[in-house]
Specification:
With 70 residues, the protein is α+β, with helices and mostly antiparallel strands. It has helices spanning 23-29, 42-50, and strands at 2-5, 11-14, 35-39, 52-56. The strands form 2 sheets. Strands 1-2 form a two-stranded antiparallel ribbon. The protein has a two-stranded parallel sheet with strand order 3-4. The protein is globular and about 30 Å long. The two termini are 15 Å apart.
């Protein structure tokens, strides 16, 4: 499951086979000027190419000075 949430706004959850596959859904709904906070995964590499992206490796942390996914 992938969840997109606007800060103080709408939440859009959707089920997809993999996080990498979610990039097309994200691209359709998220403005190019947005900042994306995400779990560290292969999809982060694709998101970095399109958006200001802040990823967190949950094996190391759930919050740092740059990003938060909670």
């Amino acid at each position: 499951m992938v969840v997109m949430r606007e800060r103080s706004g709408v939440t859009f959850p959707f089920v997809i086979k993999s996080e990498v596959a979610s990039v097309s859904q994200i691209s359709q709904r998220v403005a190019i000027s947005s900042t994306i906070h995400a779990d560290k995964a292969a999809s982060c590499d694709v998101l970095y190419q399109r958006y200001l992206t802040k990823c967190i490796n949950h094996q190391e942390s759930y919050l740092d000075s740059e990003a938060c996914t909670n």
